[in-house]
From TrEMBL:
Pfam families: DUF6311. InterPro entries: DUF6311 (IPR046278). Residues 1-24 are annotated as: Disordered. Residues 51-393 form the DUF6311 domain. The lineage of its organism: Bacteria, Bacillati, Actinomycetota, Actinomycetes, Micromonosporales. The chain crosses the membrane at residues 43-62, 126-152, 212-228, 234-250, 262-282, 336-353, 360-378, 398-423, 444-464. This is DUF6311 domain-containing protein. Keywords: Membrane, Transmembrane, Transmembrane helix. The keyword Transport does not apply.
Length: 623
């Protein structure tokens, strides 16, 4: 990050700096096409990023309706639900902050569930006509490519002279093992394409005389990012804070001069953002369905120190057995730089050390790499008990809600910018640069690019793993369910949708564009309101949902008597059930037996499902 200002010399070179060279045949051809070499390089960069995104998500593209990402099937289903909700907002004018399509009778606070409306609403026509399954794989693909392209654009226009250097930075930021890991279902942690613009515009706040303009532009990016992923915005704010403090410590006079316009611009950005975000954030933290805390200890998800030099499971050189020891989950391989990249970063340090901004960036990346290790050092799966700096801030509000290992995402982006700056430094060596009487520019460039290729090949991404799932029943897909489910009543899938079990019910809802209401589901909500609003995965268990999930998990039908049948009746009334539906799936015979005993009668066979019609049950009044 050599400067927060646009690179004027680089811009001049792009606009006219090549005029002194004799145009060759390729240049004449490009001129005939009215396209500059720089623009052609841009197109090649964006095209290769898109091709890589398609490659990573290719297996899911082959059949998005009947395949799931095995790295995180739960979050794949959750994000389908979130995207389907945006379709309801656009095409059915439903409340963007709230959904009654799952979690009946309580509903779901969408602001508390990373609703991603800034992504879901633009693709809502695709969701409407082709389904949430297509929108999810499309967003994952475009988010990978878009994050790389955004870093490339910002780097090439404002921080480096060489487009090749910017390409390397964008390639790492968009397709590092961190990003490939989150592409197993976390759209919100892959869609980082606003982050480089937020960083750039925040640094632009130091410009005097443009306080309102710069603050307003930053506010637009902040608002959009809130509706993609608030956690990423927190990371960006923290990273900028560390960078500014580090830079100010080394250049106090310059920092002092920039303090007033920067604070003024931040004030404008904060004020304008507050106008737009005040109500959505109130809804998130105080509205219906809000919760406090998380259903797990964020400190339990830390980065193993041995993970940084290791290779991720979806890297070309990855070793699944090693990764299992070092990683929290397939979607949280947040470090795994690989030792060749670490060596390359170490080489970049002396190359960039003369730049104060680069040193501040290196400090920022190292800071977040260290705090991603958590409160105590974990090495090769063993907690050493050695206290680390994060121990001092682990209980700070808001920070105590973050999965600690995700701080490594900031280190990943910092590494990408460092690699771009180092490549730019190598490319800027004059042809006649000599050391001890020997010309070094050309050999240094060749050595750098050879080392870069050698470092990047082992961490090259592999396609995301998928598996086939049972197709959406024709009873659901064809709309045959409609006569069975009056307005205000629910369709109850067997087993009920929940985290780690009963995923089919969640897919039924999402693949049918949330046209019917259903109880339970996989989302964040209060554990047992109103008495207990601690964060929980979905709603408090009911006797019948717990029984059916046990049958689904074990394949064993427990003894069912009058008490269980009465509980089932009460649960169905509570869920406002109109029909209970069982489709083809594993444990289907055991589930049908259990449900038959609970209902006291066998099901009807309608098309490709078994169902129990319970429309005669009373409907409780709404609160």
């Amino acid at each position: 990050m050599t400067s927060a200002e646009p690179n004027v010399d680089a811009a001049a070179g792009r606009n006219g700096g090549t005029a002194s060279h004799s145009p060759d045949h390729s240049r004449r051809f490009l001129q005939l096409l009215r396209i500059s070499r720089e623009r052609l390089v841009d197109l090649v960069a964006y095209g290769t990023y898109l091709a890589l995104g398609v490659l990573v998500m290719g297996r899911l593209w082959l059949d998005p309706y009947n395949r799931v990402l095995t790295g995180n099937e739960d979050d794949h289903g959750l994000h389908m639900f979130l995207i389907a909700h945006s379709e309801r907002v656009v095409f059915h004018f439903e409340n963007p902050l709230w959904s009654e399509r799952l979690g009946v009778p309580d509903g779901v606070n969408m602001m508390s569930n990373t609703s991603m409306m800034a992504l879901g609403i633009p693709v809502s026509p695709i969701t409407h006509f082709f389904g949430a399954a297509v929108s999810v794989v499309l967003l994952l693909t475009l988010s990978l490519a878009g994050t790389a392209a955004a870093w490339y654009w910002v780097l090439s226009r404002h921080f480096v002279r060489s487009r090749a250097a910017a390409y390397i930075g964008g390639l790492w930021c968009g397709f590092a093992p961190t990003m490939i890991s989150h592409a197993n279902g976390h759209i919100n942690f892959v869609a980082h394409f606003l982050i480089p613009f937020i960083v750039w515009r925040a640094l632009k706040l130091r410009e005097p005389g443009r306080t309102v303009r710069n603050g307003a532009i930053l506010a637009v990016f902040i608002v959009l990012q809130i509706f993609i992923n608030e956690e990423a915005l927190l990371f960006a704010a923290m990273a900028l804070g560390v960078f500014v403090v580090a830079y100010a410590a080394m250049r106090p006079a310059e920092a002092k001069a920039a303090l007033r316009p920067m604070l003024s611009g931040l004030g404008v950005a904060a004020a304008l953002s507050f106008v737009v975000l005040a109500y959505p954030l109130w809804w998130q933290f105080f509205g219906p369905g809000h919760y406090r805390g998380l259903p797990y200890d964020p400190d339990a998800f830390v980065t193993d120190l041995a993970a940084y030099p290791a290779f991720a499971r979806q890297s070309l050189a990855g070793d699944p057995a090693t990764v299992e020891v070092l990683s929290n989950s397939p979607t949280e391989d947040n470090s795994f730089f690989g030792w060749p990249v670490l060596i390359l970063l170490a080489v970049a340090v002396p190359l960039l050390w003369r730049s104060v901004a680069a040193r501040a960036l290196l400090i920022t990346g190292l800071f977040f790499a260290v705090i991603s290790l958590g409160p105590t050092l974990v090495y090769k799966g063993e907690d050493t008990g050695i206290k680390l700096p994060f121990w001092l801030i682990s209980n700070v509000p808001v920070i105590d809600l973050v999965s600690v290992t995700r701080f490594a995402i900031v280190a990943t982006f910092a590494a990408g910018v460092v690699l771009a700056l180092a490549a730019d430094r190598i490319m800027s060596l004059a042809p006649d640069t000599t050391v001890a009487g020997h010309r070094v520019a050309r050999p240094a460039r060749i050595a750098w690019w050879v080392a870069l290729v050698a470092a990047f090949v082992p961490v090259a991404p592999l396609p995301a793993p998928v598996r086939g799932v049972e197709p959406l029943p024709d009873f659901i897909a064809s709309g045959q369910w409609r006569p069975y489910v009056p307005e205000g009543r629910t369709l109850v899938p067997v087993p009920l949708a929940d985290v780690t079990r009963g995923r089919l019910g969640m897919r039924w809802s999402a693949l049918s564009d949330l046209e019917f209401q259903a109880p339970r589901g996989y989302f964040m909500g209060p554990a047992d309101p109103p008495g207990n609003i601690d964060g929980s995965w979905g709603q408090a268990q009911r006797p019948t949902s717990a029984l059916l999930q046990d049958v689904y998990r074990n394949g064993v039908v427990p003894p069912i008597g009058e008490a269980e049948r009465q509980a089932a009746r009460e649960d169905l009334i509570y869920w406002r059930a109109a029909v209970v539906v069982l489709g083809e799936q594993r444990r289907v015979d055991a589930l049908r037996t259990a449900m038959t005993e609970l209902m006291g009668e066998p099901p009807q066979r309608v098309d490709d499902v078994w169902l129990w019609d319970v429309r005669d049950l009373p409907v409780p009044p709404r609160d």
